[in-house]
Amino acid sequence: MADYSLVSIWQLAAPIERVWEIIYDSAAWPEWWPYVASVEELERGNAAGLGAVRRYTWKSRLPYRLAFELEVTRVERPFWLEGRTRGDLRGKGLWHLQSIDGTTRVRYEWSVTTTKTWMNLLAPLARPVFTWNHHAVMRAGGRGLADRLGVPLVYAGPERR
Fold first, then answer.
1. What is the DSSP letter of 161?
2. What is the distance between the alpha carbons of residues 43 and 30, in angstroms, rounded to a whole number?
3. What are the distances in angstroms from CA 68 to CA 71, 90, 114, 161?
4. Are 105 and 93 in contact (CB under 8 A)?
5. Exposure string (b/e) for 122-154, b if CB count within 10 Å is 16 or more?
6. Entry pTM
7. Domains, the chain, ranges and CATH?
8. Which helix (H) or strand (E) holds 134?
9. 45 pLDDT band (50/70/90 cuts)?
10. What is the rounded distance in angstroms from the CA atom of residue 141 to the CA atom of residue 137?
11. Of 74, 119, 104, nearest to 92 (Cα)?
12. C-alpha–C-alpha distance, residues 54 and 52, integer Å
C-alpha cells in the first residue's frame, strides 16, 4: 500500500463561521465542489455530528474515481473537523480553520493509504501525478467554496513552507 500525507490551504475573504458552515455541510459539497460526485449519509451521528458516517465518491482530473466512508471523529466548531476513512483510501482527514486579518485560513491535512491494487502498483512512478491530482481537486474546491460564499479566494494550493 502507498501512503500519502498531503496538506492543502484555502484562504478566503470570509468570516470563519460562514466558511465553517459550508465545509461542515459535506452533504452539499457536490453542489459547489466540481470533483465530488456524491455524498451519501450512512449514519447520522450525535447533535454535533460526531460519529456521523458518509460515503463520498470523488471524480478527479485523471480518469478514475475513488470512494470511501468517512466517520467524523472530532467536531470543535468552528475550528476543527476530523474524520477517519475506510474504503479506497484508509486514514484520516483534518480540517483546521483560523481567522487571520479578516480572512479565514483553511488547512486540510489528508493522511491516507491507498487500497486499490492498481494505485499501489503504480505508486512508485505515479506518486507525483497522484499528488498533483489531489492538489488540483483541492484547488477546485477552494474556488468552488469562494464562489458559493461570493467572496474572493486569496489562496488555494499546497501549504507553503
1. -
2. 19
3. 10, 8, 11, 30
4. no
5. ebeebeeebeebbbebbbbbbbbbbebbebebb
6. 0.95
7. 3-158 (3.30.530.20)
8. helix 117-149
9. very high
10. 6
11. 74
12. 7
DSSP labels for 32-98?
A: H-TTEEEEEEEE--STT-TT-EEEEEE--SSS--EEEEEEEEEEETTTEEEEEEEESEEEEEEEEEE
Q: Are 38 and 54 in contact (CB under 8 A)?
A: no
Q: Which amino acid is at 8?
A: S
Q: Is the dihedral of CA 67, 68, 72, 73 positive or negative?
A: negative
Phi and psi at 24, nearest 5°, equal: -60, -35
153: nearest Cα among 32, 38, 56: 32
pLDDT tens per residue, range 85-101: 999 999 999 999 999 99
d(CA 140, CA 30): 12
Q: Angle at the Cα of 33 (from 28 to 39), degrees rounded to 5?
A: 45
- Report the alpha-carbon angle 143-24-103, nearest 5: 50
Mean pLDDT (the chain, rounded) = 97
Is 11:155 a contact under the CB 8 Å cutoff?
yes
